[in-house]
Design brief:
By secondary structure, chain A is mainly alpha-helical. Chain A is built from 10 helices and 1 strand; from the N terminus they run H-H-H-H-H-H-E-H-H-H-H. In chain A, about 25% of the residues are buried. The mean pLDDT of chain A is about 90. By secondary structure, chain B is an alpha/beta fold. In chain B, helix 8 packs parallel to helix 19 and helix 12 runs parallel beside helix 14. The N and C termini of chain B lie far apart (about 65 Å). The chains are: A mainly alpha, B alpha/beta.
Chain lengths: ~220, ~950
């Protein structure tokens, strides 16, 4: 009776098993890689309904972040400003620009502009802007040089590991609270040394336990 | 506004479920698992999984695009993420509680008491706490209806404009109004206008839960309408005559606050009040009482008479001796104790009792010199001559009613069945009903107008002492509801048609023109209108002869049935409120049902057990209701909660419990006698929550008499048979930052459940429904354990609120395989929901049984309107996740961040209030920093009475209890 499996079949079986194993491993690795916040979230730069340029407003015109995002100082949310805030200037500045048509329409009709969210945390994370800016963490630490961005994009992964990096070693990212919105600000001395001084003076103690962020 | 959220309560409908059990057996298994039993779906699932794996590699699988929609123009003070608080007030049966309402982005989410309001003093009841859920009830009536068909407000307005004219109504001979007892200055003024325009029109104040006897009693005693106001805090001795002033016989929580003030004992030298309670059913007042006499409600009049005779307030008659020697001794001790505390005692009668009992209480108070001390009389605003509900029924019967306006009442359900009001209503040509639900009365009326919730309307209310408070809307009416003032405005002949205009006009007319605007703003801001308390009245001497003549004791005939306002649905108006349905009755711990409460002896003689259905028949109407055996119930008395058995109700309340109004009487609304009882063969298993929490012989509750405490101030520690405990685990160091802890004074706690609902509202605690409660899966983070003690014939009861104890050596943490529950440096036992995989090891290892597991996705399928009640500061949990009390960590963080923003200042004691603490009418719960030696909680923990539960297992809970004290009379023991 001839053998059903030839000599080579052993080899084929082994290579098939090895192949499947490799494939699965590759799939898992790929999944892990592509869904990692570093890869999946950083660089996200959606197209906004109004081509608002932070570079122009916050950079060239040097408007303070708090002018629009005034809630950041008082609330958990930095908040996208209402259309009325845009119209404070644009009622007279570039009042007829076709690029601002949606803004005017929103203001006149009392409807919201559907801005696309760039920085998003899961629902079970309770990030608080007020706590951070009051402690002297600058906007730039999480949002990057928004004043140089034509289109806003996410530059940091905003993952838990990334948050904890800073919560464990906050010194280098602390500055006097009055400079929080000056994205280009650099201390004259060593940033970490200044941060340490600030932290000790104000008794800043970033939480690293669960309920610090999860409630 | 999206129309009808079909899904909103869908899970609840199944939970509350009429099909019941089968549904739940199915749902025991995860949905996916039953799906997988069929091969085709299984293959499909694998395909889908493979496909999503494939997609995972592509960058196209970015998270879905999310929109941020800022308002086009925002109000100046409205900052996204910051709650805004408004003052308003809630009326319940003619008595208001002042409230502060927390709103998030224009949604009311949480209700607190208003410290400036005399009817709240910062606390509020479970009913007030839960009323916010009613705002988002998807089963609310959404539009006006004409003969049951959808109509519009414009149509109604056109109809009403034409109907309420002198041309049509003449002097109003056939015009009737039916409302709750009015306690709103602007509505009272509007009523006066209506009655001026139609002088022959009649007005009936209808109440399902009877409170009117209280006022009638004062009128009987003093010959003039008076509002009696009690000060429980100044009374050393209190005698309650069938009055559950700590529970359902009072419409606000002030008595709890005043009473508990005198139960908090600082040191052995402190004094304490003493409470005697004579009552038929075991109430919270009976549980708090130092001495309780179980007496059928119908015999309370006899008791009050005897007492009055004993104290010389009525001429003594020899033949009135009733009851055995025990009762006589009890009575003579009470009489002596009252006499010895002349001027510092208080006799209070319950609203269930008829007017003569109230009159006797007034006579007794006058005799004991309490007037002006513990009881004051105020002169209420003048009321027009009102008609009785029975007169209305007769008038309809004789076709003398053509137009009937019913404002926020549901008489078809709530009136005694013997009135036959549902059939009568058909004889009224123009029956107009204003109500929040399309209820039984709406169904029987020609016109139904959907009523606005009080959180979305302008209005005003009166507190128990007459103090007026404004109601302001926090949100646009969700379903364009209307208020009573708006409906009434057509009849009043004013030009104003909007409640805001009506209200403002009324109040601006009360004030000097120059101050009008500033006083209006102040009243809105503070939540009270200054200077509106009723003036003090000189009541004069009670007319003893008249009281003596009316207080005639009739012979008792067989078993009586008493009715009480339910702690959950009140008179049925909260029947569709899931939070309240699931809140256990404070005494019986019954949820999602009412029952005939019978004493163990009576049950034995009837041969019934828990859940057996009995039929109670009175005057041709029969009520079939399951039995619940309750120790402490008077033997010849059966008690039934009102507010159940609604036929036409939303999905939560429909078919829940039985309608006690079937056997009620128009003449004696509080209780009836002459009821025949028969057994049926059917059973209905009841969902009570307290069965499993037995003491198991362990000293969880510690109590003593004041005497014993004075002899041995450290009595609470006698049960601690341990010293020098050490831990096998590495102990945390608690040096940095504040250290949170809680102390609960069991002497002060009366078990009112306000904390349970406050916690539910604050922490997005879901409801699970009747069947799941029966399986012990209720989700409440704080429960109130009720323990009976002593002789089963005359039991005592103790309340103990139990939430997570935040152990320093927490046993739950050491068994969690994924470190989802860990310790914070501030001593909190943290719970990270997103990390929990649902092994439930922690719950198994928790000695206090305070961890709750989400067996189902209880929040799934909640529609957009239902979601509005969620507190955005707390995660909404999903299936498979463990949860428990967090000491309101979101409130701790909020205040810490605020302190940081204010220059890193230290937190003040009392700045952070947990939800349960904030609403506690008894101020029994104190939370704070244990490291601060001056904090209230740290000082309480230094007291002799302070103890922890299960101290011997060395888990060092952060919550401790102050042992309960009683103050019995030495002669009664």
């Amino acid at each position: 009776m001839p053998q059903i499996f030839g000599k080579s079949s052993d080899k084929i079986l082994k290579s098939v098993i090895a192949g499947i194993t490799l494939l699965v491993a590759a799939a898992v690795l790929a999944l892990a890689y592509y869904t990692h916040p570093d890869v999946a979230d950083t660089g996200y730069a959606p197209i906004q309904p109004v081509a608002y340029s932070h570079k122009l407003h916050a950079g060239d015109l040097a408007m303070d972040c708090y002018y629009c995002h005034f809630a950041a100082e008082q609330s958990a949310h930095a908040a996208i400003p209402s259309t009325a805030v845009c119209m404070n200037c644009h009622a007279s500045v570039k009042a007829d620009s076709p690029r601002l048509a949606l803004v005017r329409q929103s203001y006149d009709a009392g409807q919201s502009i559907p801005w696309v969210r760039v920085h998003r945390l899961p629902d079970y994370v309770y990030f608080n802007h007020q706590a951070h800016v009051a402690s002297g963490v600058s906007c730039v630490s999480c949002h990057g040089r928004v004043d140089q961005m034509e289109v806003v994009k996410q530059v940091e992964p905003l993952s838990m590991a990334w948050c904890l990096d800073c919560h464990r070693n906050p010194d280098a990212r602390l500055r006097p609270p009055e400079f929080v919105t000056r994205l280009s600000w650099r201390p004259d001395e060593d940033a970490a040394a200044l941060g340490r001084q600030l932290r000790e003076a104000a008794g800043i103690n970033p939480p690293v336990h669960c309920s610090g962020c999860h409630r | 506004m999206t129309p009808s959220g079909q899904n909103y309560w869908r899970s609840l409908d199944e939970l509350a479920g009429s099909p019941g059990f089968r549904n739940w057996v199915e749902r025991e298994f995860p949905r996916l698992a039953s799906e997988l039993q069929s091969k085709s779906t299984r293959r499909k699932l694998l395909q889908l999984m493979a496909a999503s794996f494939g997609l995972a590699g592509l960058t196209a699988c970015r998270r879905p695009e999310e929109k941020i929609l800022p308002a086009s123009r925002t109000a100046e003070y409205r900052i996204p993420g910051k709650p805004v608080h408004y003052a308003t007030s809630m009326n319940l049966g003619g008595c208001a509680t002042g409230l502060i309402v927390e709103t998030h982005e224009g949604r009311p989410t949480k209700i607190e008491g208003n410290p400036l309001h005399p009817g709240s003093l910062g606390a509020c009841s479970a009913l007030a706490q839960a009323s916010v859920l009613g705002l988002y009830d998807p089963d609310r009536s959404r539009f006006p209806r004409k003969r049951g068909k959808r109509s519009s407000w414009a149509d109604y307005a056109a109809f009403a404009e034409e109907l309420f004219t002198p041309a049509r109504q003449g002097r109003g001979e056939k015009l009737w109004f039916l409302s709750e007892p009015l306690s709103s200055p602007s509505l009272e003024a509007l009523r006066a206008d209506v009655l001026r325009r139609f002088p022959a029109a009649r007005w009936v104040e209808f109440e399902s839960v009877p409170f009117a006897a209280v006022n009638r009693g004062a009128e009987l005693a003093f010959g003039q309408p008076l509002e009696a106001v009690f000060d429980f805090a100044r009374a050393d001795i209190i005698l309650s005559l069938d009055c559950d002033f700590l529970g359902h016989d009072w419409r606000d929580v002030i008595p709890i606050r005043q009473f508990s003030e005198r139960r908090r004992v600082d040191s052995p030298a402190s004094k304490m009040n003493r409470l005697y309670s004579v009552e038929s059913l075991f109430t919270l007042t009976g549980a708090a009482a130092d001495h309780r006499l179980a007496l059928p409600s119908s015999q309370v009049l006899g008791f009050a008479r005897e007492l009055a005779e004993e104290l010389g307030a009525l001429p003594r008659k020899a033949e009135t001796k009733a009851g055995g020697a025990g009762r006589q001794r009890w009575l003579s001790v009470v009489a002596r104790d009252l006499r010895e505390h002349t001027g510092a005692c208080l006799v209070v009668a319950g609203p269930r009792q008829p007017a003569p009992v109230h009159a006797l209480a007034h006579v007794l108070n006058a005799r004991l010199g309490n007037v002006g001390r513990t009881v004051a009389y105020l002169r209420p605003s003048s009321r027009p001559a009102l008609a009785g509900f029975d007169e209305l029924c007769q008038a309809i019967q004789s076709n003398a009613v053509e137009t009937l306006v019913m404002l926020g009442v549901n008489p078809v359900y709530a009136a005694p069945a013997e009135a036959g009001f549902g059939d009568l209503l058909a004889k009224v040509a123009h029956s107009i009903h204003l109500g929040a639900e399309f209820d039984e009365t709406a169904d029987a009326s020609a016109w139904h107008v959907n009523e606005a919730h009080y959180l979305e309307s302008w209005g005003d209310t009166r507190a128990y002492d007459g103090t007026a408070a404004l109601q302001q809307p926090m949100i646009q009416p969700l379903f364009d509801g209307k208020t009573a003032a708006e409906v009434l405005s057509f009849a009043g002949g004013q030009s104003e048609r909007r409640s805001y205009d009506i209200l403002r006009k009324h109040w601006l007319a009360q004030w000097p023109q120059t101050e009008g605007e500033s006083r209006w703003r102040k009243a809105l801001h503070d939540g009270v209108v200054e200077g509106t308390r009723y003036p003090l009245a000189a009541p004069g001497v009670p007319d003893v002869k008249r009281v003596d003549a009316t207080a005639r004791v009739a012979g008792t005939q067989g078993v009586e049935v008493t009715f009480f306002a339910d702690s959950s649905s009140f008179d049925g108006r909260f029947a569709n409120n899931g939070w309240l349905q699931e809140t256990p009755d404070p005494m019986t711990k019954l949820t999602w049902d009412n029952a005939a409460l019978v004493s163990p002896a009576k049950a034995q003689s009837l041969g019934v057990r828990d859940g057996d259905i009995i039929a109670l028949t009175r005057g041709g109407n029969s009520l079939e209701i399951p039995v619940l055996i309750v120790p402490g119930q008077a033997d010849e008395s059966i008690a039934i909660a009102l507010g159940y058995g609604r036929r036409q109700c939303g999905r939560v309340g429909r078919g829940v419990g039985q309608n006690a109004n079937l056997i009620r009487s128009l003449v004696t609304p509080g209780f009836v006698s002459g009821v025949t009882i028969s057994k049926t063969v059917r059973k209905r298993p009841l969902a009570t929550t307290q069965e499993h929490h037995s003491m198991e012989g362990r000293p969880l509750i510690r109590e003593a008499t004041l005497e014993e405490y004075r002899r041995d101030p450290k009595f609470a520690h006698k049960a601690d048979h341990y010293k020098d405990l050490f831990s096998l685990h590495k102990e945390h160091s608690y040096e940095e930052g504040p250290q949170w802890g809680m102390a609960i004074d069991l002497s002060a706690c009366v078990g009112c459940n306000a904390c349970v609902v406050a916690c539910q509202a604050e922490n997005n605690v879901p409801i699970v429904g009747r069947e799941q409660v029966r399986r012990g899966r209720e989700m409440h983070w704080i429960r109130v354990d009720r323990y009976y003690s002593g002789d089963p014939e005359a039991p005592r009861a103790v309340m103990q609120p139990v939430a997570c104890q935040h152990c320093e050596n927490a046993p739950c943490e050491t068994v969690c395989p994924v470190a989802a529950t860990t310790h914070s440096p501030e001593g909190l036992n943290d719970m990270a929901y997103n990390r929990c995989v649902g092994t439930r090891y922690c719950a198994n290892n928790c000695p206090y049984k305070v961890r709750r597991f989400n067996f189902f996705d209880l929040n799934k399928g909640v529609d957009e309107i239902g979601k509005m009640v969620f507190n955005p500061d707390v995660t909404v949990r999903m299936r498979g996740v463990m949860e428990k009390c967090t000491y309101c960590v979101q409130r701790i963080q909020e205040k810490k961040i605020q302190a940081r923003a204010e220059g890193g200042r230290p937190l003040k004691d009392g700045e952070i209030l947990t939800a349960c603490q904030q609403t506690c009418p008894a101020s029994a719960i104190v939370f704070g920093d244990l490291k601060d030696p001056n904090s209230k909680v740290a000082q309480l923990k230094q007291k002799d009475r302070n103890y922890v539960m299960l101290g011997e297992i060395n888990i060092r809970p952060r919550t401790s209890y102050l042992a309960r004290l009683r103050n019995p009379h030495p002669e009664l023991g």
